[in-house]
Amino acid sequence: MRVTCPNCGERDRREFYVKGAALARPAADAALDEWHDHVNLRDNPAGEVHELWFHEMGCGAWIDVCRNVVSHEVISTAWVSDLGGTR
Amino acid sequence: MADLISLSPCDGLLPVTIGSVTLSEDLPDAMTSLAPYAGQEKALSAALEAAHGMGFPAINRSTGKAGARAIWFSQGMALVQGVVVAPELTEFAALTDQGDAWAVVRLDGDGAEDVLARLVPVDLRRQSFKRGHTVRAELAHMMASITRVGPDAFQVMVFRSMARTLVHDLKTAMAAVHARG
Amino acid sequence: MRLADKGVLQRGKPVTFSFNGRHMMGLEGDTLASALLANGVHLVARSFKYHRPRGILTAGSEEPNALVTIGSGAQRDPNIRATSQEIFDGLEAHSQNCWPSVEHDIQAVNDLAAPFFGAGFYYKTFMWPAAFWEKVYEPIIRKAAGLGALSGQADPDACEKAYAFCDLLVIGSGPAGLMAALVAGRAGADVILAEEDFRMGGRLLAEVEQIDGMPGVDWVAQVLEELRSLDNVRLMPRTAITGAYDQGTYGALERVGHHQPRRANLPRECFWRIVAKRAVLAAGAIERPIAFSNNDRPGIMTASAVRSYLNRWGVAPGQRVTLFANNDQAHHTARDLVQAGLHVAMVVDSRHDAPDSELYPVMKGAQICNTSGRKRIDSITVRSVAGEERIQTDCLAMSGGWNPTLHLTCHLNGRPQWNRDIASFVPTPGAVPGLVSAGACNGEFATAGALREGAEAAAQVLSDLGLEAVKTDLPVAGDDPYNIAALWAVPGKGRAWLDFQNDVTVKDVKQAATENFSSVEHMKRYTTQGMATDQGKNSNVAALAVLADATGRGIPETGTTTFRPPFVPVSIAAMGAGAAGQGLKPQRFLTSHLASKELGAPAIEVGLWYRTSYFPEPGETTWRQSCDREVTMVRDHVGVCDVSTLGKIDIQGPDAAKLLDFVYTNTFSTLKLGKVRYGLMLREDGFVMDDGTTARMGEHHYVMTTTTAAASQVMAHLEFVRQALRPEWDVQITSVTEQWAQFAVAGPKSRELLNGMLGEQIDDASWPFMSCGAVDVLGVKGRLFRISFSGEMAYEIAVPARYGDALFRELLQRVKTLDGGVYGMEALNVLRIEKGFLTHAELNGTVTAFDLGMQGMVSKKKDCIGKPMSTRPGLMAEDRERLVGLKPIGAVKQLTAGAHLFNPDDPVERIYDQGYVTSVGFSPTLGHSVALAFLKNGPDRIGDEVRLVDHMRGIDAICEVVSPVFFDPEGGRARG
């Protein structure tokens, strides 16, 4: 499987570490239920997901990867730093 | 008072030549990482140009030449090799001494591409990876920086503590490539 | 027998090899199979289950029968297909799965007991008694059935792996593949042409046929010459594409050393990962046998294999050949044999409208219903409207039609489609993104059609890649009709083989259907059809057809099993190439490694690092003696220890303090210049991630230390926070772990030791506890931190790594003059346990700040990662397992990390579990063992007794619960 790093171009997935779903961090004073949801509960769609990938063996960029978990198609990748600190 | 003697990362391991490929250690005079502060990219590049005659490199590229080179080193960071970075650059960027942190080797000769093709999952053939191009990539499970510094020559860097593994893995690949004839 | 004027291999280059100890001659360009046939050897192997005599069925990698062992001793290589193995001088091959010899195999008695060994035999027979399975049945089955065996010795040869990249990967070098490579190559595309055979050309090497007015072989040579002249085309013979993976990644196995004598450093195989923007699958097709009684005898081959041996290798597989076919193309075998001067006794064609020939006799509408000949076929029995007739023959060629080699199109879950016209499955277009099928693998069996499809596929690829095609004329080639009429199995008594390698017969498939294993996936598993190393390349479609017939369904409704990687067997050695010995993982060595080794000190692995365990002195015979001495030495005098493995992260920028405040539970923005503070880091789920100290080196400059274990995790975490959560902050981070060699200098005389080496003298006033700064160390610019992981007055001194070796040696000399010495990980561990300091034995991912008694460190004044979740009631419950110390009561017994804790009066059962031990050591300072543990309500139970039980190591001890700080609880020693 290959993922396109916005810096390095298309790379083998073994260069990346995957953190999991790309989610907005709740406010510090958000209700504990909201935090519980953020940390523990995940949708599991048979389709497109946004994930956080780290180009660990490469440039050290954190990347938002949109991919289809059924077809394995990688639909888009972007620097998380461009997404306004919402992840 | 006794002076401390300096040892290079690949001390006692190199150089080695197998077939047409030679692996030798490079010891740049200095290595400093430069990470520009917010909005300072252009100012840094200009200051770098003024002080050392090379601009801040674009992603996957290097500037300068042998002896004084700036290579793109990671997201928002370059590594200046060969010259001690002028202190006034601290205004524009976080400067960090990395002069001892990396083992730097040079892989040179006809077949060097084939050697790296056994260790690095990135296309480093001349048509796609020209002189001055650089990548951060995996090399046999190590985080490496690889720069083409000549038609058949590459600079390869890994963390200093992994120098022995780097030499071992490169030598193994060199021997395998050579054995094919 | 070799024919004088047939074949396209190099004449006059003889090769000597041996088979089962017998020396033979072959020619360069022979496979072991062709050379054996040239030497009149037909009995090559014994079958898997029944130990039936078997010969050579095919001429390609799909061969199910002729599996041999190559080489001997540690270098022996089992299960090599004789049809793929090239011969070379000195090649040594042996039959396998037979004893005492392939000619006389004792276990052939299995064949007589065949009625008992049908489908499901194992499941039905070895059900009971259950205890017999491991002890009795399995060893017997393993001994009886099977393939070749490994030597059991370490493999002296290496394999390698490699990466390749291209615009277009062409898989197969027959007419379609060559044409695709030519069209794409001429247009300047970056092409890899991979061919599993050692010679390119595919079926064109084995057929008598004209292309553009020249023999097909000459056309192949001409195309190859042009391809070789193109810099943008890379030819990879002996390379089988084994799998198709996501985003255009293909696995490939190249045979590098199999075809030549062993040489130093020459890899046996190379496992390639090829990344291709596009691929053309031109893998051809595999001819399928017909199932009839005793269709597995040596001398029975596929019709195309007979043509291959005749036309490519100039070998006559028999003197009196018969052919059994259901399609026109197979008749070429008879034609070629007759034209080569060989006798074709009969062509048996199941079709009533089969074509006649002036060259050979044809029986139309007839079927072969049996054969005879134990070690080689000697006759066939033909059934027709005229009745049954026996015909003498020493070689039977059979063709039930062709199956497109579409395996790779299934690797990403694609399902092939049934094509009635050719009675075969064909690939579903788009099954592998970026891959187009062309030629026989796409169901186009005529040469002209294959050339055309190859050219068209390349043109499509060029258009996808934005390259302009150079006009290339299609060569003129044969367009012979195929005219197949499906025939899968000839009815009759006796066993008719489908899967030759796993000994599965028509009867087995029917039995599976009878027992209601009527889904193809169930049938496959019940009968083991297609589950051998050839993955049923010859047999799956026929087995499916038999199942369809037995269950009264059509073939498309019955479905198909799909194929998984690898297309050909790949040795584990090739998959794991480079990972043996030192290649397993990187080794990280400290700058003090060599000097420590010279002292005879053993190293232990800590992650990738090698750290010194202890430094034995003369007379010390166990590690404990060294460890006890080193601990006492530090407490009484001074010790030196390399701590460079701790992660060190350089943090700079106007918002550096903000970052630290956000990732640590406690506050760092208030830390004064030249000071160090201990910090605790949580994960977002509220559990502890790591701890360490951070030093403020400048106004906007900090150096963070992490534990050795979590160094890379913390680095990734900081990058995550910086890039993903707080991209607006102006802060830069970089690892400096490797830049500095750092040594702990600990003990009452630590300052005395340092003062002999520093440019400026230090004292308590200039360097109080938890201070830091730049120093001059023997003329080198270094850093000094007054921190302590031992509880003693201690410093960590850092110099650029190039001076690490020299500084360690210098410290080693000087520390001795103060009755001190160097200490290793064992002593370091005891020293920190005595003080209740933490490592990742405690920070194991399941503990909270509350569990560690550090809830006070979670600042109430600010947000930090993990703070909201850490306040959940469950994470701060009194009855959580919380950190305590343990010391044994009574006679000193061994304590062990990993032991569990119970109330002394409770049964030792899981539900009564009170906690567990994380770290233990013998404290020479206190004279007894000490342990750190997590115990329910721990801090409330100081003074209580608990029972420590370690079932694994047979430990059962009563301990007293104490404070985790065993030594100097006030901390006066460290503060000086």
What do you see in this structure?
The complex is a heterotrimer of chains A (87), B (181) and C (976). Chain A has one helix at 32-40; strands spanning 2-5, 9-12, 17-21, 48-54, 62-68, 74-79. Chain A is mostly beta strands and 87 residues long. Chain A has one domain: 2-Layer Sandwich (Folate-binding fold). Chain A has a four-stranded antiparallel β-sheet, with no helix packed on it. In chain A, a hairpin with a 5-residue loop joins strand 5 and strand 6 (74-79). The radius of gyration of chain A is 14 Å and the shape is globular. With 181 residues, chain B is of the alpha+beta class. In chain B, 20% of the residues lie in helices and 35% in strands. Chain B has three helices and eleven strands. Chain B has helices spanning 41-52, 112-117, 163-180, and strands spanning 16-18, 21-25, 31-36, 62-65, 68-74, 77-81, 93-97, 102-108, 134-139, 142-150, 153-159. Chain B has a six-stranded antiparallel β-sheet with strand order 1-2-8-11-10-9, covered by helices on one side. A five-stranded antiparallel β-sheet of chain B has the order 4-5-6-3-7, covered by helices on one side. In chain B, strand 5 and strand 6 (77-81) form a beta hairpin. Chain B is globular and about 50 Å long. The mean pLDDT of chain B is 96. In chain C, the strands form 13 sheets. In chain C, strands 8, 9, 12, 13, 14, 15 and 28 form a seven-stranded mixed β-sheet that branches. Chain C has a six-stranded mixed β-sheet with strand order 41-42-43-40-34-44. In chain C, helix 5 (175-186) runs parallel beside helix 9 (447-465) and helix 7 runs parallel beside helix 8. The termini of chain C are far apart. Chain C is built from 23 helices and 50 strands. With 976 residues, chain C is of the alpha+beta class. Chain C folds into six domains: 1-151, Ubiquitin-like (UB roll), CATH 3.10.20.440; 160-285 and 404-465, FAD/NAD(P)-binding domain (3-Layer(bba) Sandwich), CATH 3.50.50; 287-401 and 482-558, FAD/NAD(P)-binding domain, CATH 3.50.50; 597-645 and 739-832, Gyrase A, domain 2, CATH 3.30.1360; 647-735, Aminomethyltransferase beta-barrel domains (Alpha-Beta Plaits, 2-Layer Sandwich); 878-975, Aminomethyltransferase beta-barrel domains (Elongation Factor Tu (Ef-tu), domain 3, Beta Barrel), CATH 2.40.30. The chains are: A mainly beta (87), B alpha+beta (181), C alpha+beta (976). Chains in contact: A-B, A-C, B-C.
